[in-house]
Amino acid sequence: GDSVTQMEGPVTLSEEAFLTINCTYTATGYPSLFWYVQYPGEGLQLLLKATKADDKGSNKGFEATYRKETTSFHLEKGSVQVSDSAVYFCALLHSGNTGKLIFGQGTTLQVKP
Amino acid sequence: DAGVTQSPTHLIKTRGQQVTLRCSPKSGHDTVSWYQQALGQGPQFIFQYYEEEERQRGNFPDRFSGHQFPNYSSELNVNALLLGDSALYLCASSLSGRLRDGYTFGSGTRLTVV
């Protein structure tokens, strides 16, 4: 079945460092891919999305490119801030539009001043 | 514009009891999904409601049931609570036909079963 695998955390970075969080997926067809962020004590917020191969999603300085050849959707940011500290989830929505989001296990990011 | 509203925010129940969680979707959305998020894990899909019917269901037992009302709001019911049901329950809304735009999530209901 469909699945999403994220790099294990926690990831600890200094402010202004470069961020990469790896995400790979297994799915038939052409799923849509998402990154969600969860701040402490809150629900999930959509960070960015991509709906087809080679699409690049971007928001708030974060970027991710839908790579079908490597079945990946890695999250990157050039310069992280303390306020980026949160848990990041990669997710896919199957191309059959079943409506079911499949999430990875989440990666905790901690940014130190 | 209010997003997704869930109530209550926190709840403590005893094993064997029943619980009802409530969700109001974002204005303009007609589809509601429920997810269970155990501590340190990613959310797991429970079911999705559209036009007052369960459209899809995840791998959860029949103890988990739901309902959607004509105003698109929804309830999640869990019977015969187990300790393992302790989790954050998230409601997500979307517009049918625009699911690829992504879902809007509420802040969740933290359920503790003792």
Short note summarizing the structure:
Chain A is mostly beta strands and 113 residues long.
Written description of the protein model:
The complex is a heterodimer of chains A (113) and B (114). Chain A has no helices and 12 strands. With 113 residues, chain A is mainly beta. Chain B is mostly beta strands. Chain B has no helices and 11 strands. Chain B has strands at residues 5-7, 10-13, 19-24, 31-37, 44-50, 53-57, 64-68, 74-78, 87-94, 104-105, 109-113. In chain B, the strands form 2 sheets. In chain B, strands 2, 4, 5, 6, 9, 10 and 11 form a 7-stranded mixed β-sheet that branches. The model of chain B has no long low-confidence stretch (mean pLDDT 95). Classes of the chains: A mainly beta (113), B mainly beta (114). The interface between A and B is medium-sized, with 25 and 29 residues.
Characteristics of this structure?
A: mainly beta; four-stranded antiparallel β-sheet; B: 114 residues; mainly beta; seven-stranded mixed β-sheet; 11 strands
